[in-house]
Amino acid sequence: MTTPSQQLVDFDWKFAINVANSKTDDNNGAARLYLKLTTMSNNGTNRTDIPLSVTLEQFYALVHQLEKAKLEMDVYG
Amino acid sequence: MPDHHSYQDPFYGWTTPKTISLCVQKLKECNSLPLQAIQKLISMSEAQILNEQASSSSSSSLEILMKFSKNHSISIENLLVIFNGFVHVLRLALKPPAAFLKSDIFKDDLRDLKFSEQIIEEFHNILFGTKRDQLYNIIQERDRPRLPFLQSFDWNLDVTLTTASLSRCIEPLLFFQFHTTDNRCLTFEVPIKKFNELRYNTALLLKEMEEVDGKQALKLLET
């Protein structure tokens, strides 16, 4: 599953706690991570920013997948 | 009874519009059209104004016109002229403000246009009937050029604890999310300084709206 056009160049993150919300009040105290992935095309011209906001569970799932990938890489590396 | 022409112009304007004079002329020519068909045409013209956007209703009204032209052996062009005249009368009647056009003045004007009494009765029932508010609302809200509306407005207040570059920054973080009626979802971050400016501008706007309300020149016409 290679993406020949874009490569990840930067991974910026921000960790925040939700204090108030205009929707229902059950989200008070929920932690959120705001990620900003910067990708650049292969020949170095197009820089695209991908802003995301993930909840803690989604972030732990992402970390789990990344750690699995790292373990596999360490086996063959 | 004093003639209303001395103080109020007829609702259709200074001269009879060509659409309406053609409609009356065709009505006289096709006197084989029964009253029920005419009533159906008038109610269809009301439906035309109310749900002009729904494509299904406009195709079905064309089918109804074709059916009429077959049943009563009148050419479809004459029927279209008559239907167009009815829609035009309704639109012109909805133009002056609601409290301005009284029902007997409306009937008098229709008599000047040489419509028959039954047709006048039908028009009167439509304009002053149950759907009166809805008709005026549609003409006011829908049939003018407008930008998309703000449908919903959500905000989210977070406190940033750590970032990739700073390890202990306790900083408030405000997000706004606008949903507009053309299905666009605009999400953006608001710095606290801009948020305070927004609060100031909202208060200023509310004060200006109150002042505009009080001005003499913007009051409604005398009823």
Break the fold down into its secondary structure elements and pairings.
The complex is a heterodimer of chains A (77) and B (223).
Chain A: E1 6-21, E2 31-41, E3 47-55, H1 56-76
Antiparallel strand pairs in A: 1-2, 2-3
Chain B: H1 18-29, H2 35-50, H3 55-71, H4 76-93, H5 103-112, H6 117-127, H7 132-141, E1 150-163, E2 171-180, E3 185-190, H8 192-214
Antiparallel strand pairs in B: 1-2, 2-3
Helix pairs in contact in B: 1-4, 2-3, 2-4, 2-6, 5-6
Protein name (chain B): COMM domain-containing protein 5
Family (chain B): Belongs to the COMM domain-containing protein 5 family.
Domain COMM (chain B): 149-213
Keyword list:
heterodimer, A: 77 residues, alpha+beta, three-stranded antiparallel beta sheet, B: 223 residues, 2 domains, 52% helix, elongated, COMM domain-containing protein 5 (chain B), COMM (chain B), COMMD5 (chain B), COMM (chain A), COMM domain-containing protein (chain A)
Overview of the molecule:
- The complex is a heterodimer of chains A (77) and B (223).
- Chain A has one helix at 56-76; strands at 6-21, 31-41, 47-55.
- With 77 residues, chain A is of the alpha+beta class.
- The radius of gyration of chain A is 16 Å and the shape is flat.
- In chain A, strands 1-2-3 form a 3-stranded antiparallel beta sheet.
- Chain A has one domain.
- By secondary structure, chain B is of the alpha+beta class.
- Chain B has 2 domains: 4-143, no CATH class; 150-222, no CATH class.
- Helix content of chain B is 52%, strand content 13%.
- Chain B has 8 helices and 3 strands; from the N terminus they run αααααααβββα.
- Chain B has helices at residues 18-29, 35-50, 55-71, 76-93, 103-112, 117-127, 132-141, 192-214; strands at residues 150-163, 171-180, 185-190.
- In chain B, strands 1-2-3 form a 3-stranded antiparallel beta sheet.
- In chain B, a hairpin with a 7-residue loop joins β1 (150-163) and β2.
- Chain B is elongated, with a radius of gyration of 27 Å.
- Chain B starts with 17 loop residues before the first helix and ends in a 9-residue tail after the last helix.
- In chain B, 13% of the residues are buried.
- Residues 53-57 of chain B have low confidence and may be disordered.
